[in-house]
Amino acid sequence: MFAAHQLGAAAAAYGAGLTRSVMLSYTPALYAAGAACLVAPAVVLVAIRGHAQSSRPKPVRA
User: What is the per-residue DSSP string for 20-43?
Assistant: First the structure.
């Protein structure tokens, strides 16, 4: 998890610098970062929901 965080930070920094060099503005990088912040909680909720359903024991008929 820590390595993924570091790789994501490196990719974001590189992408922001590339955006600044090509488009002369950080605005697209800001919008991309905002979109990532909106998508991340949805990914976590889906992952948690999938994990919770798979870890529940199946009911047994009496």
Answer: HHHHS-SHHHHHHHHHHHHHHHHH
CA–CA–CA angle 50, 55, 61 (5° rounding): 120
Pick from 17, 51, 7, 15: which is nearest to 33 by CA? 15
Q: What is the pTM of this model?
A: 0.67
- Let me know how long the chain is: 62
Q: Residue 26 corresponds to which tokens in the numbers above?
A: 């950080």
CA 26/CA 17 separation, integer angstroms: 8
At 19-28, the pLDDT tens digits run 999 999 999 9
CB 53 within 8 A of CB 44: no
